[in-house]
């Protein structure tokens, strides 16, 4: 690392401390959703392989959760694999699935996070289903941040699964379709979502410069604040996180009821 890079790094750290010092900790989001975008473009810019990009993105996760643990954040949802990702070439998808399995194992072994899967299990390989189930069971007692790992996740699929679950629940209870139609409301549907009994995301962060949700938590983000960051996910820094938190706090003070 040359002198210029060292000075730049020092200035970034000093700026991060300044931003952190001015944060309003009374306005911290309870639930943060993260669309971790840009692994492949980061790899291309670095002259590395796509798999290396996914590994670098995976390596950023615990660092990000560490930043969250320094605040009053209670829930973090990480979008690791969408339903659309299954259309990727096998030479990319197979290593990506392995990297995601390693992420889940690491989170479960850390001891600070309570792991919860959000997504359609039937889309996933049986081995990954087992890993997710074991991670949820072994961390169920952890009194820390709930980490939703969105794997095999799609917003439309979640709503379809919620409706299906609601219908099956009514059938099991012997509820008629007429009675169910009368009873259906927003709260009932919410109880059948993957994130049932969790607060909706207050803040959604998307990296890489893309300014769209791509179907992320369509139901739950009706009142969320969005923060779009130009940095690719593997290069996301604490200062970028603090900027997102500062931006959220300013919007919350301006628009919150």
TrEMBL record:
Short name of one Pfam family: Prenyltransf
Catalytic residues in the record: 37, 85 (proton acceptor)
GO molecular function list: transferase activity
Xref: InterPro entries: UPP_synth-like (IPR001441), UPP_synth-like_CS (IPR018520), UPP_synth-like_sf (IPR036424)
Keyword match Metal-binding: yes
Family annotation (SUPFAM superfamilies): Undecaprenyl diphosphate synthase
UniProt keyword annotation of Signal present: no
Listed EC numbers: 2.5.1.-
Co-factor binding details: Binds 2 magnesium ions per subunit.
Positions of substrate binding: 38-42, 54, 82-84, 86, 88, 206, 212-214
Residues that, per the record, bind Mg(2+): 37, 225
Enzyme class, first EC level, given as a word: transferase
Keyword terms: Magnesium, Metal-binding, Transferase
Role this protein plays: Catalyzes the condensation of isopentenyl diphosphate (IPP) with allylic pyrophosphates generating different type of terpenoids.
UniProt record similarity statement: Belongs to the UPP synthase family. Z-FPP synthase subfamily.
NCBIfam families in UniProt: PRK14828.1, uppS
Subunit note: Homodimer.
Protein known as: Isoprenyl transferase
Species per Swiss-Prot/TrEMBL record: Streptomyces tibetensis
């Amino acid at each position: 690392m040359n002198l210029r890079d060292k000075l730049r790094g020092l200035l970034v750290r000093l700026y991060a401390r300044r931003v952190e010092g001015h944060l309003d900790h009374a306005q911290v989001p309870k639930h943060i959703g993260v669309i971790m975008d840009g692994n492949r473009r980061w790899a291309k810019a670095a002259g590395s392989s796509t798999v290396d990009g996914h590994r670098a993105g995976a390596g950023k996760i615990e660092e990000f959760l560490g930043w969250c643990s320094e605040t009053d954040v209670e829930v973090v949802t990480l979008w690791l694999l969408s339903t659309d990702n299954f259309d990727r070439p096998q030479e990319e998808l197979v290593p990506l699935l392995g990297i995601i399995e390693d992420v889940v194992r690491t989170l479960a072994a850390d001891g600070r996070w309570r792991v919860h899967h959000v997504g359609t299990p039937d889309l996933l390989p049986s081995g990954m289903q087992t890993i997710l189930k074991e991670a949820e069971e072994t961390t169920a007692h952890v009194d820390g941040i709930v980490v939703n790992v969105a794997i095999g996740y799609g917003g439309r699929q979640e709503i379809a699964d919620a409706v299906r679950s609601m219908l099956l629940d009514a059938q099991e209870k012997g509820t008629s379709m007429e009675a169910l139609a009368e009873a259906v409301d927003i709260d009932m549907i919410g109880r059948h979502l993957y994130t049932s009994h969790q607060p909706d995301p207050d803040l959604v962060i998307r990296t890489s410069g893309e300014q769209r949700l791509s179907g992320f938590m369509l139901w739950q983000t009706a009142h969320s604040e969005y923060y779009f960051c130009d940095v690719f996910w593997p290069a996301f820094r604490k200062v970028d996180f603090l900027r997102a938190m500062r931006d959220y706090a300013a919007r919350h003070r301006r628009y919150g009821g």
